[in-house]
C-alpha cells in the first residue's frame, strides 16, 4: 500500500461530524462560560450602584450569582473532558463502521459504551435547551432597558423624560422593599451610557449565542452517535445470523 492510499484510509476513519461538533461545542461553551461569568459580575455592579444600595436587599441575589459563577466553572471543565471523550468515541465507532465489511468485529462492551454516550448526549441536549432558554432571559431584560433608554434620547421635554422609568423589582430580581429599585429619566439614560451596562448587555448576547452553538453541537453529536450505534448494532445482529 502506497503513501497516498494510506493517507486516504486514515482520512476515511476521521469522524468529521464529531470533529465539527467538538469544535463547535468547545467554542460555544467557552463563549457561554466566559462571557456569562463577566456579564454576571457587571450585573451585580449595576444593581449595587443604581438599583439596590442596601447590601441586605440583594444579598440573596449576590449569593445566587456567585453560585452560578461556580457552576460555570464546573460546566466548562465537564464539557472540555466530555468533548474529548466524545471525539475519541467518534474515532472508535467510525473506524468500526468503516471496517465492519472486513474481519473487524465489535464487542458487547463497546456497543454498551456507545449506547451510554447516546443516552447521555440526549440528556445533555435537553438540558442545554433549558440553558439556552434561561440565557435569553437577561438578554430580554437588558433589551427592555436599552429600548427604554432609546426612547428617552430624542425627547426634549424634561417632564416627559422623568415619567419614563425602569423598575427592576417587577422582574423579581430584587425585593420590593429595595431602594431605590427603579431609575427614571436622565438617571436611566446615564445608566445605559455606562460601560458596565454596555459590556454586560453585549456579553449576555454572546453568551446566549454560545449556548445556542452548544445546543447545535450536541444535536450533531446525537445524530452521529445514534447513527454509528445503530449501524454497529445492526451489523452485530447480522454477524450473529450468519453464524447459523
TrEMBL record:
<dbReference type="Pfam" id="PF01275">
    <property type="entry name" value="Myelin_PLP"/>
</dbReference>
<dbReference type="InterPro" id="IPR001614">
    <property type="entry name" value="Myelin_PLP"/>
</dbReference>
<keyword id="KW-0812">Transmembrane</keyword>
<feature type="transmembrane region" description="Helical">
    <location>
        <begin position="67"/>
        <end position="92"/>
    </location>
</feature>
<keyword id="KW-0472">Membrane</keyword>
<feature type="transmembrane region" description="Helical">
    <location>
        <begin position="113"/>
        <end position="137"/>
    </location>
</feature>
<comment type="similarity">
    <text>Belongs to the myelin proteolipid protein family.</text>
</comment>
<dbReference type="GO" id="GO:0016020">
    <property type="term" value="C:membrane"/>
</dbReference>
<feature type="transmembrane region" description="Helical">
    <location>
        <begin position="203"/>
        <end position="227"/>
    </location>
</feature>
<feature type="transmembrane region" description="Helical">
    <location>
        <begin position="19"/>
        <end position="47"/>
    </location>
</feature>
<protein>
    <recommendedName>
        <fullName>Neuronal membrane glycoprotein M6-b</fullName>
    </recommendedName>
</protein>
<dbReference type="InterPro" id="IPR018237">
    <property type="entry name" value="Myelin_PLP_CS"/>
</dbReference>
<keyword id="KW-1133">Transmembrane helix</keyword>
Amino acid at each position: 500500500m502506497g503513501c497516498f492510499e494510506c493517507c486516504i484510509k486514515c482520512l476515511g476513519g476521521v469522524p468529521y461530524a464529531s470533529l465539527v461538533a467538538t469544535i463547535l461545542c468547545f467554542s460555544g461553551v467557552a463563549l457561554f462560560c466566559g462571557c456569562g461569568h463577566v456579564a454576571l459580575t457587571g450585573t451585580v455592579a449595576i444593581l449595587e450602584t443604581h438599583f439596590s444600595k442596601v447590601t441586605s436587599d440583594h444579598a440573596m441575589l449576590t449569593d445566587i450569582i456567585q453560585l452560578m459563577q461556580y457552576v460555570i466553572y464546573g460546566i466548562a471543565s465537564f464539557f472540555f473532558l466530555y468533548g474529548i471523550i466524545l471525539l475519541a468515541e467518534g474515532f472508535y465507532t467510525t473506524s468500526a463502521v468503516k471496517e465492519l465489511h472486513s474481519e473487524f468485529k465489535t464487542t458487547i462492551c463497546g456497543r454498551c459504551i456507545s449506547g451510554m454516550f447516546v443516552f447521555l448526549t440526549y440528556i445533555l441536549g435537553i438540558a442545554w435547551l433549558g440553558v439556552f432558554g434561561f440565557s435569553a432571559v437577561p438578554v430580554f431584560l437588558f433589551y427592555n432597558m436599552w429600548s427604554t433608554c432609546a426612547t428617552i434620547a430624542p425627547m426634549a421635554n424634561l417632564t416627559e423624560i422623568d415619567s419614563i422609568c425602569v423598575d427592576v423589582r417587577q422582574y423579581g430580581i430584587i425585593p420590593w422593599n429595595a431602594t431605590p429599585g427603579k431609575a427614571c429619566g436622565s438617571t436611566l439614560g446615564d445608566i445605559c451610557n455606562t460601560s458596565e451596562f454596555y459590556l454586560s448587555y453585549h456579553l449576555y448576547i454572546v453568551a446566549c449565542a454560545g449556548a445556542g452553538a452548544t445546543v447545535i453541537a450536541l444535536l450533531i453529536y446525537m445524530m452521529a452517535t445514534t447513527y454509528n450505534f445503530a449501524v454497529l448494532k445492526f451489523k452485530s445482529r447480522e454477524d450473529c445470523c450468519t453464524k447459523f
